[in-house]
Amino acid sequence: MPSDTPRPSDLDAWLRRADAALTALRPQPRFSHVGRVERVGDGVATVADLPRCRLSERLIFDGGVEGIALSVHADRIGVALLGPDSHIRAGSPVRATGDIIRVPVGPALLGRVVDPTGRPLDGRGPIRAERHDPIERPSPAIVDRELVTTPLQTGITVVDAMIPIGRGQRELLIGDRKTGKTSLALDTILNQARTDVISVYAAIGQKASSVARVIEAVRTHGAPERTIIVVAGPETPPALQWIAPYAACSIAEYFRDRGQDALLVLDDLTKHANTYRELSLLLRRPPAREAYPGDVFYLHSRLLERAAHLSAALGGGSLTAIPIAETQAGNLTAFIPTNLISITDGQIYLEARLFNEGQKPAVNVGLSVSRVGGKTQAPALRKLAERLKLDYAQFLELETFTRFGAMVDERTRARIEHGRRIRAILRQRELSPLPLAAEVALLAALEAGVLDSVPEERIEALGPVLSDTLAKAAPRAAARVNETGELSDGDRAELVSAVSAALAHEGTASDSRAPGA
Asked: Quick one: pLDDT at residue 140?
């Protein structure tokens, strides 16, 4: 065979390349990525002629209104609209984007109030985001997570001492309407002004007055430069309320993935589930228990599973989730509350009876639990609060018993008086979270018996002034406790002395204010 004759292998390769070139030149059949609206109304639309549309894909309607594909069938697509439907008509075109809903993330959002799509609501101009992340992201794998051991200080004594929350935990805040759930979550956000935690608050279907109160409290008492507020009010389309917690989670995850600590408050997931039920029924999806769709458990589990403390290899950042849920007449066994209780790592139950009796925060310590427990507590608090929950529970039983006029001995009477001082310590004014040193000082004084002869009302008034007193009377001990979380014998004595001094000063001030003084 002559040397210039192509070998069979070279000829086969040349034929394959020629065939590929001819195929590229031939016109290829294409599917249309523009459909049409069949029906529209109540914040949803039915779209046809989009055979390649995928679940959760972002669609664009006339006028720039966006939507999310929630139901995908062979001949039609059910879409939840993220904007007003007043300019959308049957037969108008719909364009598929091949993408999902994304939200701007980055440091530019710090201190801002935005809607779930990242549009600013505070009138401070546009936001220059670092990038746009999907609102739906997979949760970290088990091997990518670290143990939850670092405390998230709430500044609320009853929580930090009895139901501690760790960075990376999911702690449910649950109770009836008007029992102080948002106030407790707000105090937790305000207390992060003393830490390096970045807070993200998601208002889902909350009244404008409630959201304005949160914004004003953060700007007045907190660290607004490290707080982001995501608002989807009741007047917004249901789809915006539905994506609000996912968008807020993606915003918080940006900081977690950079090795920082973030706190995510979701207020509240009961309204979120109701919105999802509304959308599902409008799109004619099959209803299940209590008319909720069958995937309502997955709705919240895929959201809350994203809260985690990442391993050191991934930066060691954390995302702590505090979802809020509302009960009816204290019924913890309802569908959505039981779902959320099974997903989270514990719950803080606020009881209407305690709230009406003036015990605020109205935390029922018997029904509240943290499944992470004392592993996340500062050592100083863990040491002082070892028997606190048991002593308080025994006091409540004894107090109920003595209400019937039963005779008690001196030992039982002393335990009841001691329990009343515990209850007084656990009362706390709104918007007044305490630093760790103040909480430790109160518990140390309680253990030392300093408060046994002090009237309950004076103990309640002690909390707001104790921080200033510690800064003057025991500055070094308070600083060491706040920085290290440890409590030495010398620091304990200093803090107890400071509490005694604060009580004496408060008593003198009360006498001077008395009539006739």
From this structure: 96
Strand partners of residue 48: 36
Residue carrying the six token digits 């972002």: 58
What residues form DSSP beta bridges with 504? Answer: none
CATH superfamily of the domain spanning 384-513: ATP synthase alpha/beta chain, C-terminal domain (1.20.150.20)
Topology of the domain comprising 103-377: Rossmann fold (3.40.50)
Residues with Cβ within 8 Å of residue 331, at least 6 apart in sequence? 337
CA separation for the pair 374, 155 (Å, rounded): 16
Separation of alpha carbons 144 and 257, rounded Å: 12
Q: How far apart are CA 138 and CA 141, in angstroms?
A: 9
Nearest 5°: CA angle at 239, between 236 and 242? 100
Q: How far apart are the first and last CA of the chain?
A: 126
Domains of the chain by residue range? 34-99, 103-377, 384-513
Is there a shared CATH topology between the 103-377 domain and the 384-513 domain?
Answer: no
pLDDT attached to residue 14: 67
- Per run of 10 residues, the mean pLDDT along the chain (length 517 residues) is 56 71 58 83 93 92 93 92 91 93 96 96 93 95 95 95 95 96 97 96 96 97 97 95 97 97 97 96 93 95 97 97 96 95 96 94 94 88 90 87 73 88 93 94 93 88 85 92 93 93 68 45
Instruction: State how beta strands 261-267 and 318-327 pair.
Output: parallel
8-state DSSP, 133: E
Instruction: Evaluate the CA torsion angle 298, 299, 300, 304 in order and state its sign.
Output: positive
Q: Which of 52, 124, 353, 371 is catalytic?
A: 371
H helices of 192-334, in order, are 208-221, 238-257, 269-282, 296-304
Q: Where are the alpha helices (DSSP H) in 283-433?
A: 296-304, 335-343, 352-356, 379-384, 388-402, 410-426
pLDDT of residue 210: 95
Give the per-residue pLDDT at 30.
Answer: 45
User: For the structural domain made of 34-99, what CATH number should be given?
Assistant: 2.40.30.20
Q: Which pLDDT belongs to residue 31?
A: 45
Q: What is the pTM of this model?
A: 0.89
Q: Is 371 a catalytic residue?
A: yes
Contact 274, 208 (CB under 8 A): no
Per-residue three-class SS string for 442-497 = HHHHHHHCCCCCCCHHHHHHHHHHHHHHHHHHCHHHHHHHHHHCCCCHHHHHHHHH
pLDDT of residue 400: 82
